[in-house]
Design brief:
Its main location: endoplasmic reticulum. It is found in: Endoplasmic reticulum membrane. The chain folds into two domains: about 15-85 and about 135-255, no CATH class; about 85-130, no CATH class. The protein is built from eleven helices and three strands; from the N terminus they run ααααβαβαβααααα. The protein has helices spanning about 1-10, 20-30, 30-50, 55-85, 95-100, 115-120, 135-150, 155-160, 165-190, 195-215, 235-255; strands at about 85-90, 110, 125-130. It has a three-stranded antiparallel sheet with strand order 2-1-3. The N and C termini lie far apart (about 90 Å).
């Protein structure tokens, strides 16, 4: 028992066990914004350096717009779900608890009907209801999105695509951001465990990635689908290489 108590005390004293930590305030609360900045810059620079086509670059950037719209839709839907299934309670004072004969482990709660979760928490009262972790949803979605969008950089380099210092630096920043999101996800699971809600949030994030990148985007680029990462870039580069090789061979034949 003493070892368990000491372990819990050490956990509480950890800097990552505080919601006011720098990483939570600066990165987690605006996680989608950081993801859009770095991934959007990388996707635009990669696509524009190959084709010099603004239309193609915007088509690849539209994947971020679709994921952003899905994230905002989930936030609205989860907010409606929480307000519909939850209730707001006001803890009664200790004097009323003693008068009623209740112990301190189970304080009396006064139900406030018609309150939203935001107004309830802002008033310092307790909100109890069905919740889905938005943090777990966002982190899982951002991790999978980063992995998908940056995975084309290896084949792109192997095909001899132009890769200056800005593109390589942006790729490095994307990798560092992916590592940060994984680290914050592990911190949430370790220091703020709410496994049923976090499990549902992570499942929604993985489901969103599955539907978009493994389902819809595989249909190919069209007016209703932006296509998968690298479509129109890697194929174009390989065709250019084949054409250049054919021209070199024809020139050698003519010379001989």
């Amino acid at each position: 028992m003493e070892k368990a108590a000491k372990r819990n005390e050490d956990t509480v004293q950890s800097v990552f066990a505080k919601r006011t930590h720098f990483l939570y305030r600066v990165f987690l609360r605006s996680g989608w914004g950081w993801t859009c900045i770095f991934v959007g810059s990388f996707v635009f620079l990669l696509s524009f350096s190959v084709r010099r086509s603004l239309t193609l670059s915007l088509r690849h950037l539209s994947r971020l717009a679709v994921a952003g719209g899905l994230w905002l839709g989930f936030r609205k839907l989860l907010c409606l779900l929480e307000n519909a299934t939850g209730s707001c309670y006001e803890p009664l004072s200790s004097s009323l608890e003693l008068a009623s004969g209740t112990n301190g482990d189970q304080p009396l709660l006064l139900l406030h009907e018609g309150e939203t979760k935001e107004a309830c928490v802002r008033s310092g009262m307790l909100w109890r209801g069905y919740e889905v972790s938005e943090d777990a949803l966002l982190l899982c979605l951002c991790c999978l999105l980063l992995a998908e969008e940056t995975a084309v950089f290896g084949p792109y380099l192997s095909l001899g695509g132009p890769s200056g210092a800005p593109l390589r630096i942006l790729f490095l920043f994307c990798v560092l951001l992916l590592s940060l999101w994984v680290f914050l996800l592990l911190c949430l699971l370790a220091y703020f465990p709410r496994f049923p809600t976090q499990l549902l949030g992570g499942a929604l994030g993985c489901l969103s990635w599955r539907v978009l990148y493994q389902g819809w985007y595989r249909l190919g680029p069209s007016w209703y689908c932006p296509g998968r990462p690298g479509v129109g870039l890697l194929s174009t580069q390989s065709k250019q290489d084949e054409i250049s090789e054919t021209l070199c061979e024809s020139n050698d034949t003519e010379i001989n």
